[in-house]
Amino acid sequence: MGMTTSKPCVFISYRRDDSGGWAGRLEDELANAFGSQRVFRDVKIPVGVDYQDHIEHVLDSCYVVVVVIGPSWTSLTGSDGARRLTAPDDLLRREIERALQRRDVEVIPVLVQRARMPAADELPTELRALARRQAIELSDSRWSHDMAQLTSVLRELLRDTTAVEPPPVPEPPAPDPPAARRRPERRGAIGTSICLIAVGAVLKFAVTATVAGISLAAVGTILIIAGVIRLVVSRPERREAIGTSICLIAVGAFLRFAVTASVSGISLETVGTILIIVGVIGLVVSLVLLMQAGHRGAVAGRERVIEREPYVDPYA
Description:
It is a single chain. By secondary structure, this protein is of the alpha/beta class. The chain folds into 2 domains: 10-157, Toll/interleukin-1 receptor homology (TIR) domain (Rossmann fold), CATH 3.40.50.10140; 187-303, no CATH class. It is built from 8 helices and 5 strands; from the N terminus they run βαβαβαββααααα. Strands 2-1-3-4-5 form a 5-stranded parallel β-sheet, sandwiched between helices. The longest helix is centred in the C-terminal third of the chain and has 36 residues, at 268-303. The protein starts with 9 loop residues before the first strand and ends in a 13-residue tail after the last helix.
């Protein structure tokens, strides 16, 4: 992953013959945690670039160097039979030496495959400070736990740098279409309207009794008019009206067909008939209005679908 900018990052130092696979797995985990542009491993150095200059440039832009140490990290030899770590021009040695010389860089040894931390006398003089650094172990059986621990340490080290970016702010949810918005203060408005109409019709047409100083017929007319007005201005999507209408039909049918008793000044048969008629009308009106509201909500929902261009990572 060629890093040609000076952005802070985590540098992974490793020996391919010793821990190449582990370093790759570690890179994937850290890239998921911090972003691929924040993690450097040498396998993607651009073609034609002086790799030594490039690595030194990246090292100078990093805040943390993770040194992956496997079982043969100190013992691997070159073609001449000498330990590679003791060669002055060994690239791994130069990476670690440069990192240890910088006071603003944290160097973290990471032990894999049950490797032990090398003793100071096993290291060249320039690298002996590495032996005093506290190490962290990554094991295959506890990988998730160990990676969580390492990631937590890195987040703390990089907390005040631009290497740890704040989480993206989620987009606010799209508002409900107008037909689906709810206003609790109008709940039950249609049901109330139907009840007013039913009571008004009973007083207007079924009650012949009189009350001193009160015209029950006039009261019934007023209730019918008030119920109709309230029904017209109510929100059409309220489902409470269906239950109210069914109740009116049931009570009306009971009075119309099951009650044989009589009440002075009141025709129970007429009351039942009125309730059935008002209930049926209310039920039909409620169902029609609900279907219209559902259709408008579905159309509004389809209109809110916005095609978005796929996101392209500028650092990929």
